[in-house]
Amino acid sequence: MRMTLVVPPADLPVSLSEARKQCRVDHDGEDDLITAYVEAAVSHLDGYRGILGRCLITQDWRMDLACLPAVLRLPFPDAVVVAATFTDAAAGAIAWLPHESLAPSVWRASAGWGRPASVIIRAGFGPAAEDVPRALQVAILQVVGHWYDNRAAGDFPGSAEALISPFRMRRI
């Protein structure tokens, strides 16, 4: 399985002004640095490669499969299938949608089993920063503030770890 981000989030979970307040900065001379810290903190948490194992702001991912299973487990919680195609030797690419949801993020494929497939999935708490749980926003701000105050340190503060823990997806 290969995952590719096709529609990135339209926004960041925290604003530059919130991050400035966290860093106790009241001028715009550090905006590039603070924005870089926000983006790095979000990247550490968000999406397929993030430690949360879920998306913060709504985004679309393409999941390329060498062999479509009859039951498709999506890599994010609360994800939905937006579009899908499978490759048929005779007809080429054929559009299909999963037949039914068996559980959150688990779908039964309606056709194409055993064939190469591409599935577009949409995941995230919602399209805006306000949709992201406040605890995750606070964790991002804590990380940004910590990195701003301790520029040589690259660690993730324990208080932020505690805030994200309930939202982390654990794979079994």
Automatic annotation (TrEMBL):
> Entry's Gene3D superfamilies?
Phage gp6-like head-tail connector protein (1.10.3230.30)
The record ties this protein, via CDD domains, to: gp6 (cd08054)
What parts of the sequence cross the membrane? none
Source species: Paracoccus yeei
Which protein is depicted? Phage gp6-like head-tail connector protein
